Structures are given as C-alpha cells and as structure tokens.
Amino acid sequence: MVSQLSQLFPLPAWSGCGHVAQLRHPRTCWMWSRYLSPGLQTYARRPPDSRLIHHLNATGWHVNPEHSEAPGRQRKRFYQNVSITQGEGGFEINLDHRKLKTPQAKLFTVPSEALAIAVATEWDSQQDTIKFYTMHLTTLCNTSLDNPTQRNKDQLIRAAVKFLDTDTICYRVEEPATLVELQKNEWDPIIEWAEKRYDVEIGSSTSIMGPSIPARTREVLVSHLASYNMWALQGIEFVVTQLKSLVLTLGLMDLRLTVEQAVLLSRLEEEYQIQKWGNIEWAHDYELQELRARTAAGTLFVHLCSESATVKHKLLQQ
Hints:
By secondary structure, the protein is mainly alpha-helical. It has helices at about 1-5, 50-60, 115-125, 135-145, 155-160, 175-200, 215-225, 230-245, 245-255, 260-265, 270-275, 285-305, 310-315, and strands at about 75, 80-85, 90-95, 100, 110, 130. The strands form 2 sheets. Strands 2, 3, 4 and 5 form a 4-stranded antiparallel β-sheet that branches. It is globular and about 60 Å long.
C-alpha cells in the first residue's frame, strides 16, 4: 500500500532513514493554526514558548515542554535504532529497547503495520536533535490515542461536514472576469464529480452567505464518513482544516485528486494573485510546501488507518 500511495505524494524523500522503509515526507514545522479543530495539532514555523505551552496544556493540548525548540529545550536523540513489534493491541514502536509512549503516557500502538513503518521512519529520520515538530504522523497518532478533547465518532464527522458551509471551492467571486473564469474551469469539475459520486447537490455561490446546502447532502456525506474508523476520521478532519474544503478532501480520499492538485485548488485565488502581482521572496513557496506536507501527511494517515477492504470498496464504487 505504501508504494502505491507514494505515487500520490510526489514530494522529496527523507534521507538517513536507515533500516526503516523510507516514505516521501518533507521536513516541516509546527503551527498552531487559527483554523485548527480542537484536539488536532499541525505544524508552524515557530514552536510555542513556555507561556503558550502552559496555556495549551491547561486547555487540553498536552504539549511537552521538551518538544519545544526554544534555546536549551531541545532534546538530543537518545536512541540508536528504531524497530517495530506486534503486540496485543496492534503495532508498537521501539526506540532501542524502550517502547514509545504518548504524551498521556499510553502505550503508542497503531492499527496497521504500514502506519507503524511510517511513524518509525519519522523517528529514524531524526538527527542529533529530535525535532518533534517535523513528525506529522506521530502527532496524528498521539491525537488519536490520547483524544485530549474526548470527542466521539459522531462529533468528528459533524465537525468535518460543517466545513461545507464555508467550503473554499463553493465560494465564488464576481470579478475580475479572469478569476471568475478560472474558478469555474478549475472548481466546477470537482463539484460536479462530488455531486455525481455521492448523488447529492452542492453547488456554488457568490453570496457572502455561501451556497445553500440541502439537508440530504449533509445526511449522505455524514453516512459516507461514518464508514471510516475513528483513526481515519481524525486524519480526514485534519486534512479538511488544511484545505478549508470538505469537497477537496473527499477528492483526495477517493483518489480523484493528488495532494499537489488539491493544494493548488485550495489556493487558487492566492495563486492567481501571485501570478498577477508577483511572489514574496521565499514566503509563498514556504507556505505552499508547508501546506503540501501537512495535507500529504493527513491523507497518507487516513489511507494507512483504513481497512484494506473498506478502501477497495470505496474505490470500486467510483
């Protein structure tokens, strides 16, 4: 499965992965995003200081101060080898002879061997200093295991479907004409695909209130998302918050879109403005790579957490 999915993520491979299978996964930073859903962690350029760590811990985020990159707070790599073993509850990660634990001291156990390999790759890729903010899949696993906000499956699904009200590709401009045409040409085919794929109505609107989404559409998508397990749903909501679009996320999950396509579609207006007014040196490229990395990690997480039979069934329906 990893080799097949790697075709969806044409991103630079990590070096120095040792004996653990390599995955295409670029180094990125830890962001506390204002769009972030409760309990999910993403990545930013600058790790939180001690005051922010204290505040986040108080609100249920469970941030370990040793994970901060503030001067004197970095943690040196304390292990030589990373390995995987199968336990009663799933697959475990071993750092030398120590079993990996979550921030809440639970045994770090993942449901699939492929996901365990991916997480082990992140740990094996660390150099002299452990940079926790580069470990996207490890963070998603910690969130799934600890579930700091104690949300159930229904709450995760409702949070994802709620994004339909403000879905990026459903909001359209009225001018300039060139951007109107660009949105129509690039976004309409994806909406049409989703409407046909799920037999629903979505539409688009130039109103600030957005399109009027029928109740049946919500019901159908809620039912569809309910076919995923809790782990996969954590990843789906994570991707939705990155792209600000449930429709694009569904396209990723059904392999209708690649990560690069979904990210560019989510940034269509921004890319249009860059083409017109120019690029800010390094900043826009950095943000693009950051978004690609987070989206790729979340999408890969979903696929690796989904049962093979379920994934095949969803793909065969297309």
